[in-house]
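Hi C.,

You asked whether I'd gotten around to modeling the 339-residue construct. I have! Everything is below, sequence then structure, no commentary in between.
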Amino acid sequence: MESWLRSDFRHLGRAYVSATLAAGAAVSWAALIAVTWAAGWHQVWRGLVDANWVWLVVAPTGVLISHLGYALTYRQVARVGEGPDLAGEEAVAMVTTGFGPFSPRGGFALDARGFRTLGLTKREATLRVHTLGMLEYCVLAPATFGCALYLYLAGRPSQAGLLPSWMIGVPLGTVITLALFALYRRKDRPETWWAPARHALDAVEGTFRVLRSKSDGPLSLLGMTAYWAADIAVLAACMAVFTPRHSEGPAIVVGYATGYALTRRSLPLAGAGAVEALLPFALTWVGYPLATSILAVISYRLFNLWFAVIPAIAGLRQLRSRRRREARTESSEVQPAGV
């Protein structure tokens, strides 16, 4: 049980995977049933009848590209500052495992454990995990700001305060964060500061270190941009199945970013339940009908979460197999001669 709570993939077997998948499915479908009841079963059924299913062929490719993009960023963040140089297949395995609904503490907990098995200290592993999270927002937040500004200037109707919150919040939050970071460095990173604030500011420094690297910085941004663009494209394709308004990219970006109060890699069980409950309403705030949004989110999560379980399980098995081989090698190396 302790290894389950610690998200230590080295000791998570079939019982654990079965339990987390069942828990994820239960909370996911409970949230969807509740939201569907709020929208009205008849309205949702009408959306199914008029669906244009051909758009779903885009979704599997989008999931694949999103995972490969994240793996590229993951590898660059791992190696910065003389960190481990991950093989491409190992980076992909760690990323796909983290996107599976395997940890009640979220995919980042699996990442932290994975980094520590590569020889990093707890602090170094935590810093890389927080840096990954900071890089996620470094790409998504400015993109959402731009889309919100476009919709506002175009006079697009939306939930009161939604577009201004992005237009004001992103630049203001950036200024406040950079000011706190400058003060934090000037005071020589005081240990007396609130721990979550210190971790966030350390992640800002880690992000700057990644971006300053001529080899790691561009690839990190490229990978994270590919991740977000592909994942949003999956949602857009699922929206296009149920509404002809599939070309409204900026609205989908704002709805997507609003519905993900936290990114799914940081959410427990890959966001099962939380995303299904929040994302449909976020899409209604940018003008989509609730019934359409529910059907789109159901389709999106079938690919974004449940289709992704297949590579996630394969990644988990690969990581566990690799760690067992390394453990046997280390054990044989310490055996005394003649034994």
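If it helps when you're writing up: The chain has a mean pLDDT of 85.

Thanks,
B.
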